[in-house]
Every structure is written in C-alpha cells, then in structure tokens.
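Re: the pair you flagged

First of the two:
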Amino acid sequence: MRLTPWRKQAELSREPRGIRRLRDEMDHLFDSFFGATRLSDWSSPETAGGWTPEIEVVEGDKNITVRAEVPGLDPKDIEVSVTGNRLTLSGEKKEEREEKKGGYYLSERRYGSFFRSIELPAGTKPDAVTAEYDKGVLTLRIGKAEGTPIQRIPVKTAGAATASPKKTS
C-alpha cells in the first residue's frame, strides 16, 4: 500500500525519508502477499493488468492535496472523478519508440492502465477539486468545508460526581 495515511504536513516532514520508504516497501510486501487490504483500497498491478502510480496524500488547514506520479502520460489520458466521497484516478499509458540507424532496428512499446480510488474524509468539498499536471506529477487539491468546529466534550471521573456517604455513630 503506497497510500500515505491522513496526516498533517508537519508530521510528514518529521518522518525520516528512509523510514517512510521502509514502511512503503513493507506495505507493498504485505499487499502483494495478502492482496490489497481494506485500508489500502487500491488494485495492484498484478490484479488490474496495469501499473500503479505512487500517490501521496497530505492534509493541510484549508485543503487536502493528493499527488500522483504519472510520468509519460498526456493530461488528456488521465481521468479524475469524484463520486460521493470517493476520488478516482484512472488512465492509460501508451508509449512507442522506434529507431533505425546503421545496421540495427530498435522498437520498444510500453503500455498499461491504472486505477486508484481514495476515500475522502468527512468535511471535504467534492465539488471544489482542482487538478494540475506538471512534469509527470498530477496534483489535486480538494477543499475542506469551513465552519465545522470541533466540539470538545469534558470527561468526568465517575467517583467525582457522587459524594462519599457520611458516617453515623
């Protein structure tokens, strides 16, 4: 599973790069052995018949940013959709290369489709999604609903509410 859990930006920057890579590799190992878990919510390349782009999810104060590595794709080959609270990324990579020089001929073809689906947390605005593609990275920004205050509920000790009984002589 390469999906980064919902975390604040400050928490992600404190995690050493080597630890994050080790965690990602362990998640991928478990997913390839047991299949995609309920928490990972993505199809592995072996089951989907394609490839899986790396995805990073970061929660900020005003929006949630999702970055997907999709090098070599044309933006018109990427589809982004939101259904309810589910963000879906899909697309297809088609790359052909032919080279004829002197006494040799080189022909390479790479292709494959991908599909990633992410459940958005409560408090997001699915109608406020922007998508931007730059140098192989697709960046999505999903707005968060404002005015959803956190209601703090005090926790009382059970013994503090009752008074101790008086002794009678």
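Second of the two:
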Amino acid sequence: MAAIGIGFWFVRKRRGLRRRSCVLVVGLGNLLLRDDGVGVHAVRALQHCVPRGVRAVEVGTAVLDALHLFEWADRILAMDAVQAGGAPGTIYQLGVEGAASRPVKGSLHELDLLAGLRFVKTDHHPEIAILGVEPQSIDVGLDLSPSVQSVFPRLVEAARDIIRRWRA
C-alpha cells in the first residue's frame, strides 16, 4: 500500500500537481488499562470513515513501531489519555508546544509520542495536534470509565473536525 502511495506522489509531482497532505491519526494507549486505551478506542471508531489520504492506525504503546508512519505523514493527530489535573473526562486539544510546555504527563506510557518523534529523521517536521482525555480510571479492565465514555462521542467528533479542517 505504501508503494502505491509513493508512486502516486511521484506521478503527481512529475505532472506539476500540488500534492495533498498525508494525514495520520494515531490511537495511543493501553487497552488493558481502562481509560488509558481511549485513544485506541477512538481510532477504531474512525478507521472505517476516514477520507482518502488519511490513515487511522492503532499504535497503542508501540510508538517506536510507528516511526515509519510518522515519517510518511505531513500532519499527525494523536489521541490518548492525558493526565493534566482536570476533571475526569476533560478533553484537551494541544499542539506539540502546548504538550511540551505544560505540566502535563503527556502520556501514561513509557515512551510517548513526543519522545518517539525524536527518532524521526531531522528534516521532517509534521504538524501535530493532540487530543487527550483526562482519565478517571487506569485500573486493569477493557472498558472505559463512565466519565470518559460520556465524552467519547465528543472526542471522536473533535477528531473528525480536525481531519476535515486539515483536508480542506
């Protein structure tokens, strides 16, 4: 699939057409720890309705395994649980600067998106947006807590809005 996309890009470039940006939507988190899996649940909800040129991928906690996708993308939308001290279910929308400068534990994982991006080739600087949800419970379990489940439709709709804006 990647080879087809690359070939199409070269054909379009050769003809002098403007290349449409490649959008990557990543779901981060651990599905086994209730609200920590909110990003993966959200990307699953989006996978079957993303427009052409958008890839929605479950990354989970394997950020390093997704480096090739980060290099492919011009824009990255990451969805994850974010502990920032708000009420459970609070949705945060951050850019890289906001996530790096706030007293936010940007991820509940050992290696988060921002740390993983340090491994991407240095001449590639994708635009990044982060949608985070304040967790209520990171205990063992497969379901989202009531607080996070109640805002889940708004999280998915916020992701769709960002994708639409980027694709316009």
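The helical segments are 2-14, 38-46, 67-72, 96-101, 113-117, 146-167.

-B.
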